[in-house]
Every structure is written in structure tokens, then in C-alpha cells.
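Sample intake — DnaJ domain-containing protein
Collected from: Calothrix parietina FACHB-288
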Amino acid sequence: MTKNSQTGAAFIAGGSITGAGVSATVGGMGLAGGFGAVGIGTVPVVGIGAVGGAAVYGAFTAIAQGDAAAFGAMGIGAVGGAGFSSVVGGMGLVAPKIGLAFGIGTVPMVGVGAVVGLAAYGIAKLLDESEIRETPTQVFERMEEKVLQMDYSAAAVMELEAFLSGEDLNQKFAALEIEDELQVLKAKFKEKQKTQNDKFVNPQPETPKTQKKIIPVIIPATEAWKCVNTLKGHLAAINAIALSPDGKILATGSNDKQVHLWDLRTGKWLYTFSGQAEAVLSVAISPDGQKIISGSGDRKISSWQINTQKFWRTYSYLNSPYSHNGFVNSVAFSPDGKYIASGSSDKTIRIWGSDTGTIKSTLNGHLDAVISVVFSPDGNYIISGSADKTIRIWDIKTGKQRFILSAHLGAVNTIAICADSQTLISGSTDTTIKLWHLNNGELIRTLNGHKTAILSISLSRDGKTLASSSSDGIINIWDILTGEIIQTFYGFSPVAFSPDGKTLISGGNHGTAKIWQQTQSFEELIIHNLLSSSWWEVLGVDKNAHPQEVKLAYRQLARLYHPDINTSENAKASMQALNQAYQKFLKQ
């Protein structure tokens, strides 16, 4: 293979990995229009990334060689894009997980067609230079297969973390900045060509200029968490978790359009509520434990009676069959159970009568999707977090905004309130957690420890312990009084404490939920796990987890506990335990 063909393969590989990263970050996506709606999974996004990489290579080749054939290929693709748009009509891209929805008109389709044409030119040049007798389709399938062999797109992204660092994948994908990215790459191509070749073709070990610093993990002798059960039943990722006030029943909402009820103590499945037309994005259980509501990508709020397991009603706005004009990202009951608050991608918050289903008021003010809504425990306020990077505190009686908090640099994905209604806690895509005075809106402190977007937080009822989960599959347990991380383990969003604070529920892979409980000290837990050969407990995975999930969990934890970058007292013992557990897994 020639040097040029190696470079071309590198661009396609980079595009494929970037596509996998987009899919892992953004979550479920779809195209909607006059033709209906179709889902876009990891495979198509990987293919889109590969097309982008091939298009970039084609652009560089055309510039370097002055080949006019590239412009012909772009023209053919542009005409095809315009024709496709005229036949199909209006389309839109939707991503319920991040509250993304925007239209795709004829002009963007022409641009996409031109990029595809340029990609075809790039692949043709690549095949010609490498003398490989494969069709473009075969090349894409081969690249796709290499990525999907890893089973989790997150693993592919982690392998090329240096390449992806600093890139805002969500923003690039949401804005479809293909042309802008091409212009930037053209300007920097000459000075970075050698660096790119070395990185993808002949990687050489090098000493990084800066080393990532991980906050020491300090674990009190009386507190540790371990996974005691994994709940399996959903067919897709879990988006929402709610617990009954007595802590006996767990509700989970999923991309499979269903809500499951579980016995939290035994882990036994109890019942499945169906009827939502799209992914379930939020769930809540009433204060009396008798009713459950869900918010969905189908723009509806649905409710059921738990004791009779019967459908109760859909909350409809005026003469519309829908509750909102966008995804219902968050639902919450008022402390007395009389009202329901809902936050939507249509930028509004609506207040409903819990029993009547009638709308009481609509709160307007956010400039982007409302992602999270909660009632203060005293019932005086509604607090909302939005993709517009603000938190708004609303007076329930007047419907007026009391404060607008705007210290976050990214979307506010999750909110929690202390039981005394004095402290507000928020988590954001800017990787920080912030504590605020609820009464005056002043910032108390910022908690830093996550490296990626924070998707979910949960506060124990006594207000002393906070759990947070981020998009890289890391869960941190915090001491609220000191602001220190007291334990870190591998898990997924969302997270929720049981009412007594002794159980933590988190999302898992492949539609599972994990149950974590406090146990003996961390050192005793390590010894117990090693003596009992429970390698899966050390790594925080299910006993029957897929090998790639085990590998990813080991790598994530090793990055946190390696003594070279973690100065806490238990780092060395933790790393030894992780190594021994992983060796036991490999030997089985």
C-alpha cells in the first residue's frame, strides 16, 4: 500500500471512529418527514463518519493534484441531493436524548450530496492508488466491521481519545458543519500532514506535554458501594428511573417505549406499562405511591394506576391530543401530589392538575429545550434546567421567574433539591456540578471531578451524599459537606437513591439497571471479592457481561486508580485488585 493510500485509509478510519463517537454521545436519533420516521443507529452514523473522512481525503487529493474530476463528482452529488429533497420533501433530524430537533431543507441536502460525491471521488482515488480490488461499498463494510467488532462505540472512541480530545462532537453533528470543517482542515493540512500520518500509520510512543490529573479517591472506612443485582428486561437503553416513597417499587423508562415496574428488594419484574409511541424519556411516581406518569418522545404525558395496573389518562393541551409540541424530557409530581410539572423540547414548562389532567399554566422564558424540572420540597418553587445553559426558579403561585442562574457553560441536564429546600444542585454538559442557595440564587461551590458531560445526579434524603453519572460511564459518590469524591465506580445514567439512602440504582448496558448497596469498608470489600473469586464485583459489572463491557470497565477504572495518577492511600491496593480481577476474568 502506498503512502497516499495509507493516508486515505487513515481519514476513513478517523471518520468512522468519529461517527461512532457521535452515536455514543448523542444516543438514539431519527429522520422524520412526510415519508414517516426512521431510526438511525450506530451503523449508519459510522457510515456517515466514513463518508466524511473519505470526502476530506478527496478534497485534499483534488487540491494537491489539481484534478477537475473532483468538481464533477461534487456536481453530480449536488444534483442528486437536490433531486432527493424534491422527491422526499421536508425532513428533520431528531435526537430525543439530547432534545435535538431541526429541519433539513433543499440547500443542506444539496451540500450533503456534494460531500457524498466528493467522498466517492476520494474512495476511487484511494482504490486506484492502493491497487485494492474492492468496491466502495466493500471498503465501507470493512471499516464498519472493524468498529463494530468492539461492540461498544464508546470503546472505539476511547482508543483514539487523543484524536477526539477537544472536539465538540454534539455541536459539529447538530450544526452539520461539514463545509466549515473542510475549510479548517485545508488550512492546517500542510503543517499537520506529517503528524496525522504518524498518528494513524506509524504511531510512535511519545511523552505527553500535559498529564491529566485525576482527583484522589478518598473512601471512608465505613462506606463502600457494590453492585448486588442487575435488572434485565428492557430491550433498549434506560432513560429514566423513579422510586416509590416507601422504597419498595422501582420504575424504569426506556427507548423500547415501555415502563417497567420492579420489586426493588428482590429485583423481580412486576409489570410493564405500554402505549407510548416513542422512547420514554422521563418517569415519576406520585407521593402516595398510587400513580405513575411518563413523558415520551411522542409529545405525550401518560399515566397509570399502579395498584390496578390500568391506564389512567393522557394529559392533553387544549384541543390537541398532545401534551407538548416537542419531546417531554422531564415530569415531576408536586410534594402534595395535586400537580404535575412537565418540561419539553418546545422550550416550555406546563403545570397540570394531577387528577383532572387539565392544564393550569404554561411557563415561558427558556430559549432552548427544557431538559429537567423539579418541585422544591416545600412546594413553593419549580426549578428548571435547560439546553440554553440556564437554571430558572419559578414561583408556583404567581408563575413568575424568581431567579435566572447562568453560571454553567453548557446545557443543564439534571437538577436536585435538598430536603430542607435551601440548596439547589445542578449538573451540566460542561462537566461540572454546582451548588446554589435556592432562596437568593447565589453560587455556593463548584464540584469538579468528571471529565465528560454530567447526565444525571441524585441526592440522598439526608442531604449528605450525592451520586452523579457522566457520559463516559463513570459514577461518582460525593460528600456534599466537604465536596470530595468518596468513591468512583463504573456505571451509566440515570442514577437515583432509594428513600433511605442505602441503595443506589443506575442505568446499565443493553437495557439493564444496576442495584448498588452500601457494604463494608473498601479494603474489606477488595479482600472479600478476591477470596470469593468475584472478579465481576471488583470491576462493577454483571457476572455474564459481554467481554467488551468487562474490558471497558477495567480500562475506565484503571485510569482512575493507577498510582501514577492517583495519590490516594488506597490507589495501589485498588489497582492490584483490579489487575487480579481482570486476570481472573481472562483465565475463565
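Post-analysis note: The chain is about 35% helix and 30% strand.
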